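can u do me a favor
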């Protein structure tokens, strides 16, 4: 099988999980813009997510965020997703919009506030049971703004204890994934600021605790693909939150701001054989969940998600086309330029014809998925239908 054929085989198995919140309105502290046709509830978000899968063929899961995706009957929401060919992926807890968590949630000095935060995860685990989700995702806004505001070590001890309580809530076939972020909303010390801190807590919890790498959560200049290598070596890379940024946690479309970085990240995934989904679900296993975590503040949302999926897919295809034998030979020979050129040759390959071929083999149009979606009339139809009610979104 030549490299193109092998790449097609690998790409056929790739799946990207979509964030329900990307279909709602989002913005900055300055403004959250509304858009005609924006979903008004989780059912409409799932319907929009299904459009991304319909035109890309590789986005069969949608991740929920609680309470943003609060519904009376989660079984009904999962059935609605199934009717659209989707399953419910990760369940995201929300510890960043409750007044009680001003000075922390799982790290808060007051045991009652920590108990409230732990109880929120019990609600999330109930949602997982009702929807068939097997992954609980934690991101903590916890941190301090001034030196001396709180005891950094005590906060870590409180965090470790609270995480143990959350871990104990999981069923045997469930995993917990812990996300890190180097700053914001805290501006002095964040309690889970980097991969090392998340990894230490995951190792202390148990084998069903893994790290989430959000590509927008590193200090400028961080070599993210090096972090990927270390987490894969430790068997603790649980998931990606793909997006891109020029400055901070901009949550822009994956691959838009730095397609070369996304390629380098996917090359390390391919190089470590971490692309293929695990044959069977194993909460402690090596399977990595490739998810988007983005906000489409000004661009169209469904189109933006489709483009983000194809950007990750393009980076993956280029990574799969790297001539690994030639690269290894050049590396072993100390041929610095030669080795770099082998990698760049793959990066400069236009893989769009290969991906069109893949879509056709999946029974989809080979046409660019954004163009195909745009000519479907879906956006115009929902803009006409979704009148009245309150559009979903940050702070909705
Ligand atoms: C925090 C984060 C986290 C989600 C939120 C929507 O910045 O990346 O993954 O809970 O965005
Ligand atoms: Mn994230």
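np, heres the sequence
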């Amino acid at each position: 099988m030549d490299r193109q054929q092998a790449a097609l085989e690998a790409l056929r198995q790739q799946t990207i999980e979509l964030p329900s919140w990307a279909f709602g309105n989002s913005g900055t502290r300055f403004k959250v813009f509304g858009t005609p046709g924006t979903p008004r509830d989780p059912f409409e978000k799932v319907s929009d997510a299904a459009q991304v899968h319909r035109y890309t063929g590789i986005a069969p899961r949608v991740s929920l965020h609680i309470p943003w995706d609060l519904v009376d009957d989660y079984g009904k929401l999962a059935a609605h997703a199934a009717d659209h060919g989707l399953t419910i992926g990760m369940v995201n807890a929300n510890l960043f919009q409750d007044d009680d968590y001003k000075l922390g949630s799982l790290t808060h000095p007051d045991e009652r506030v920590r108990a409230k935060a732990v109880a929120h995860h019990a609600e999330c685990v109930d949602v997982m049971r009702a929807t068939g989700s097997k992954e609980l995702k934690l991101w903590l806004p916890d941190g301090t703004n001034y030196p001396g505001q709180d005891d950094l070590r005590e906060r870590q001890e409180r965090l470790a204890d609270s995480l143990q309580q959350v871990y104990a809530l999981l069923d045997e076939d469930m995993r917990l994934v812990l996300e890190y972020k180097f700053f914001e909303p805290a501006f002095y010390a964040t309690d889970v600021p980097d991969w090392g801190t998340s990894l230490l807590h995951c190792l202390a919890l148990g084998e069903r605790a893994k790290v989430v790498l959000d590509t927008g959560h590193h200090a400028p200049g961080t070599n993210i693909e090096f972090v990927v290598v270390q987490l894969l070596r430790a068997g603790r890379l649980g998931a990606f939150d793909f997006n891109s940024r020029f400055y901070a946690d901009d949550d822009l479309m994956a691959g838009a701001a730095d397609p070369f970085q996304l390629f380098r990240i996917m090359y390390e995934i391919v190089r470590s054989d971490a692309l293929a989904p695990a044959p069977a679900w194993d909460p402690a296993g090596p399977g990595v969940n490739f998810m988007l975590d983005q906000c489409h503040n000004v661009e169209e949302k469904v189109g933006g998600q489709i483009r983000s999926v194809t950007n990750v897919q393009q980076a993956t295809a280029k990574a799969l086309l790297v001539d690994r034998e030639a690269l290894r030979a050049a590396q072993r020979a100390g041929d610095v330029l030669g080795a770099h050129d082998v990698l760049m040759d793959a990066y400069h390959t236009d893989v769009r014809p290969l991906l069109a071929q893949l879509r056709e083999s999946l029974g989809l149009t080979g046409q660019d998925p954004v163009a195909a979606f745009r000519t479907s009339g879906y956006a115009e139809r929902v803009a006409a239908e979704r009148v009245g009610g309150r559009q979903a979104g940050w702070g909705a």
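Strands lie at 17-19, 61-65, 87-92, 135-139, 143-144, 175-179, 189-190, 209-214, 237-242, 289-292. hope that helps!!
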